[in-house]
Design goal:
The chain is 38% helix and 19% strand. The protein is built from 11 helices and 15 strands. 42% of the residues are buried.
Length: 356
């Protein structure tokens, strides 16, 4: 199956391009007070190390807007100012060099205020994200509208206002805390505009549940070719959000960040501590130079003889474990036997040999 991407308008955010055929960008948000420059910079650098490409900052007051300029001097990632209620903070954030503004139609919607913001965005040549959320969607005077329809209507109304001001560098998000509402809203909106979409499910809860909810919603949308940036919202450290986002994109073949490990869940037939082996392999692969390969390799680590040999043959390289030892496969061929104790060393050494 080949995913056919929705053809969205190309938008530039700092040094990152989204929309069109550009790779789907991973975004996260700092969880520090933005005016605490040291902590905020530290968190942004952690996000960059995790492969995040765009970072959003909460902007609550003038101290936060003033900090943006100092933060930009210390980091390389594009910064998005998250503005609510106080429209003047958007102007201050633009003056301090932010790369994108996010506005919420639920709390910044007055015509004259928007006119001032759009004028500043034009001068600075930076984009706007129209970020609609189920928790703050503006009352549209209709109890008959479903949540997806409210999200779509709110975004469309805002887009019309902004377009009348002759501004078109727009990114759209329609986030609900409910998976089905989120998917329905984005699917409907995809038929009504050509602006790039920032995907996410809002307020997902604990890390485990949040990762699952986000994976289901974003996976469904990405399979339909919908989505140009993604953010996984977790009640957890921000780099964990990036980790989940990477797994989602890799699982769909939309991005590759390193070797893909295929491993079995183990059962009563397994004669080896596969959990320990896989964890150690993940750790060591994370620091391995995979430029030795033309593409990120697929690595199979299987615990028994039922599916093990087949999966190991299909992978670029893999081990199928039996009762007393493992059998190493490369390019679909069995090449050597190995003991449990030195299996990882043997596999990694073989991966460092001439490219596949």
């Amino acid at each position: 199956m080949v995913i056919s991407r929705r053809k969205a308008k190309v938008i530039k955010i700092g040094n990152v391009y989204i929309g069109g055929n550009n790779p789907i960008a991973i975004q996260s948000m700092t969880k520090t007070k933005t005016s605490d420059i040291e902590k905020t910079v530290k968190q942004i650098k952690e996000l960059e190390s995790a492969d995040c490409q765009i970072v959003r900052l909460a902007v609550r007051d003038s101290e936060d807007t003033k900090a943006i300029k100092k933060i930009k001097d210390k980091v390389d990632l594009p910064l998005v100012a998250d503005i609510h209620f106080n429209w003047r903070l958007a102007l201050d954030a633009i003056d301090n060099g932010v790369d994108k503004i996010r506005l919420n139609p639920g709390n910044i919607y007055k015509g004259e205020e928007l006119k001032e913001i759009i004028s500043a965005l034009k001068l600075a040549k930076i984009p706007l994200r129209i970020g609609v959320n189920s928790g703050s969607v503006k009352n549209l005077n209709s109890k008959k509208l479903s949540m997806p329809d409210k999200l779509v209507a709110s975004a469309l109304n805002y887009i019309k206002i902004v377009e009348k001001l002759k501004f078109y560098d727009i990114v759209v998000s329609l986030k609900a805390s409910n998976v089905l509402d989120t998917v329905e809203a984005y699917c409907k909106m995809a038929k009504l505009c050509e602006y790039p979409f920032h995907l996410g499910v809002t307020a997902t809860g604990s890390p485990y549940k949040g990762a699952i909810k986000s994976s289901i919603a974003l996976g469904a949308l990405l399979l339909e070719g919908i989505g140009d940036t993604i953010r996984i919202s977790l009640t957890d450290r921000p780099w964990q959000e990036v980790k989940v986002a990477k797994y989602i994109l890799e699982s769909l073949g939309l991005r590759h960040f390193g070797p893909e490990i295929i491993s079995c869940p183990t059962c009563g037939r397994c004669e080896v501590d596969l959990v320990k082996i896989v964890k150690e392999l993940e750790k060591r692969l994370s620091i391995m130079d995979c430029q030795l390969w033309r593409r990120p390799p697929k690595v199979a680590v299987m615990g028994c003889v039922v599916n093990g040999p087949g999966e190991a043959k299909e992978a670029d390289i893999g081990i199928a474990f039996g009762k007393k030892e493992g059998l190493l496969f490369k390019n679909g061929k069995a090449i050597k036997k190995m003991s449990f104790s030195n299996c990882i060393d043997c596999l990694l050494k073989e991966m460092e040999r001439p490219r596949v």
